[in-house]
Amino acid sequence: MNKHYRYWAIGLILAFAFLMIAVFTTVNWYKIRKAAPESLPAVQVNRNLDNVMAETQMPPS
Length: 61
Hints:
This protein is mostly helical. The protein has helices at 2-39, 48-57.
């Protein structure tokens, strides 16, 4: 019976460690995402690519 308690204890410790890693990763991701618009330069979108896709899908008239 002592082995079963040991396995449960190891499982709980691993589950807790996995949960903590997930929480810290998520918090870090949110911090990076929140700070990104302020720290990165603005990226200009090339809208010509949208027009090229529209022209290639429509048959010429």
